[in-house]
Amino acid sequence: MQKPMDFERGKKLLDTGNYEEAVSFFQQLAEANDNDSLIIFYLGLSYLLLGERETANSLWMSALFASEDFDKDCDILLAILDEQGVKLLSKKEWLLALSVYSQIAELIAEEKNPKPEWGVYYYHLAYNYEHLGDMDNAILFYQKSIEVNPNLIDAYNNLGNIYFSLNRLEEAESIYRRAIEINPYHSGSRFNLLLTLKHMGRNQEAIQLAEETSQLLPNDFTWQLQKHLYLPIIYTSTEEIGYYRKRFTEGLDYLVNHLNIADDDSKRNALQAISNHTNFYLAYQGFNDVDLQKKYGKLVTTITRANYPKWFEKKTPIFRGKVKLGFVTGASLNRAKWLLKWLENMDRNDFVVYVYTIEEVSEELSVKFREVAEYYHCIPDDLEAVCQKICDDEIDILTYAEIGMLPRTIVMGSMRLAPIQCATIGHPLTTGLENIDYYISRRLMEGENAQSHYSEKLILLPNIGMVLEKPKIPSIRRCRKDFNLGEDRIVYLCSQMLFKYLPQHDYVFPAIASQVANAQFVFLQTYPHLTRIFQNRLEKAFCDYELNWTEYCIFLPFLPSEDYLQLNLLCDVFLDSIAWSGDNTTREAIACGLPVVTLPGEFMRSRHSYGILKQIGVTETIASSLQEYVEIAVKLGKDKQWREKVKQKIIQNHHRLYNDLECVKALAQFYRQVITIPFDIPSDMTTDN
C-alpha cells in the first residue's frame, strides 16, 4: 500500500477539479495495490466527474461483486460519493453534484429496505435539484428523503419552502406542522409556519403561535419580536389597522423596557433575531412612523452596541485627496438601476467608489457594479465580515441604498462604520437610527413639512433624484383578449402590490364604476389568500354602491416584464395607489403613454407619481382630494378626446424623465461639502430654506 499522504494527494486532485490527473493517480495506485476496493471507488469517482459514467459504474460493480462484504463496501462507496457531493454543493457546482447524487440514487434505488441514513442522500439530491430550479424533482426527492428518514427536519422545511414559493400554502402549512410534531422545539419550523399563516391572512393564529413559542423557547428573542411586533400584510378594515398599530406600539414599548442582554448568549441571540427582523409593513399603514422608527432604532442600537462596541466609536474623516464613497446594497435590480447611474456619473476627480453587496447577486449585476466602482465586494450573509471590510477600507461617507427592507441593513446602519452615514431612496421611510446622519431624498417628492417625517437630516436632490435611461417599449403584440380585458371597456390599470391599497380607499373603485358603466379595473394577484381578503373588501365596497364587483374587477397572475408592458399598452388609464404611490410602475405606465391619476399625500411614499408627473409637466391628472381623484378618473374614462390629449402630452414630454444628471451633480456637491464641513450642507438642498 502506498503512503497515506499519497492517497490524500489523489483526494486533493478531486477537490481541486483536476479529474484527469486524479484518474491517472488512482489508476497507478490501484495497480500498485492489487486493485484495492477503496482505491477503485475513488478511481470510479474520478471517471464519474470526468463524465465517463459507464466506466465508473463498471469499476464499482466489479469491486463490489468481488467483495467479501458487499453491504459494508457499498456503504463505503456511498459515503465516498456523498462526501464529494457535499463538497461540490458547497462550491455551487450544481451539475457535477447532480451527477454524483444521481449515481447514488441509482445505486440504492432497487433496495426494498432502505437504511434511514440514506435519507440524507435523497435530501442532498433534492437540494441539488432545488438550486438547479427543477422544483418537481426537488419535491419528489425531499418527499423520498422524509419517507426513508422521517426525522430529517431540514427536508421538511426545504420542502415546505418550495411549496411556499409556489403559493401552495396549504401544503406548506401541513409539512411545517409535521416537522413541529417531530421536533416541537425546532424554531425554524415554527417560524416558517408563522410566515405561512401570515401569507394566508390567518393573523390571529400566527400571533397565537408566536405567543406559544415564546413560552416554549423563552430565550429565543425571535419569538419575543414576533409576539410583540407582528404586523399583517393586508388589512380587512381600517379598524384592524388601528388595532395592530396600537398593539405594535405597546409591544415595542415592552421590548425596549424589558430587553435582557445581560450575558453573552442573550446578546448573541438578540443580535441574530434582530438581524432577521424588519418593520417593513409598518409604513403601509399610512401614518407618520418617525417616533416608532426611532424607538425601534433604539432597540436595535442597544443590541448591536452590546455585541460590537468597537463599531460605535466616533470616526473622523481623513483628508487625503479623493473622498472614499461607500455604497451598501442588496440584489434588487430596481435599486441597482438608479444606483448604477449615480455611480457611473460620479466625478472621479473627487471621489473613489466602493460598493458592497450584502446578498448574492447575478453575474450580470456583479459585472455592472465592477464597471462603475473602483472596488467591489460581494459579501452575502456575513454581517461581521462586511462591517469589518467597510471599516478596513476607511470609507469617508457610507450610503445605504435602502434601510428597512433587508433586515441586515438596519443592523449595519445602527453602527458607526464610517464618519458620515446616509440612507436613501430604496426604501422611502426614515430609519430612526441615531447613527444615520442624512436621508437623501427627492425634492419633487417631498412635501412642505418633510423634515418632521425623518430622524435624519433631510437632503433633497433636484427633480426626481434619479438618472434614468429611456426604457425600450415594445410594439403592441398582444390583444385585450389575451388578458381577459373587454374590447369595449375603459380599462383602469391598478397594478400595485395589494397591500398598498388601504381599506378606507376601496370605495374609489365603485365610485368610478357608478359613473363609468363600462369601467374595468385590472389588479395583479399578490398571494391567493391575501388576494381573497382584498376581493372581500371590494365586494363590500361595490355592494355599498349596489354594484357587483365581479362585473368590474379582474385579477391577473404575476406577469413577466414583457407581458406587463403589453398590459400597460392595452389599458386606458393608470390608477395610482393612494397612500403609497407607484414609482417604477408609474414610470412604466408613462413610458407606455398611459395617463396616471394620482393623489399626493403627506409623506414621500405617497408622492412618487406626483413628482414624476411634475417633472414631465403633466399635472392635469394630479388630484387634490379623494373626490377629485374620482372625478379625474371618471373624466378620463368618459372623455375620450381629453384622455387622448393627456396621452399625447405624456408622449411628448416623458423624455424629461431621462438622462437628467442634475441629481448626480447635486449629490456630488453634497458629498464634497459634508466631508469638508461635516453637518453643514448647502441650504438649497434641505427643507429649511
Structure explained in plain terms:
This protein is α/β, with parallel strands linked by helices. It contains 28 helices and 12 strands.
Defining traits:
globular; 5-stranded parallel beta sheet; alpha/beta; 689 residues
Gist of the model:
The protein is of the alpha/beta class. The protein has helices at residues 4-15, 19-32, 37-49, 53-65, 70-90, 94-108, 119-131, 135-148, 153-165, 169-182, 187-199, 203-216, 221-229, 238-258, 264-274, 290-307, 333-344, 363-372, 383-392, 407-413, 508-513, 528-544, 561-570, 584-591, 608-616, 626-638, 640-653, 662-676, and strands at 323-329, 351-357, 375-378, 397-400, 420-424, 438-442, 457-461, 490-494, 519-524, 553-556, 573-575, 596-597.
Helices and strands, with pairings:
Layout: H1 4-15, H2 19-32, H3 37-49, H4 53-65, H5 70-90, H6 94-108, H7 119-131, H8 135-148, H9 153-165, H10 169-182, H11 187-199, H12 203-216, H13 221-229, H14 238-258, H15 264-274, H16 290-307, E1 323-329, H17 333-344, E2 351-357, H18 363-372, E3 375-378, H19 383-392, E4 397-400, H20 407-413, E5 420-424, E6 438-442, E7 457-461, E8 490-494, H21 508-513, E9 519-524, H22 528-544, E10 553-556, H23 561-570, E11 573-575, H24 584-591, E12 596-597, H25 608-616, H26 626-638, H27 640-653, H28 662-676
Parallel strand pairs: 1-2, 1-4, 2-3, 4-5, 5-6, 6-7, 8-9, 8-11, 9-10, 11-12
Helix pairs in contact: 1-2, 1-3, 2-3, 3-4, 3-5, 5-6, 6-7, 7-8, 8-9, 9-10, 9-11, 10-11, 11-12, 12-13, 13-14, 13-15, 14-16, 15-16, 17-18
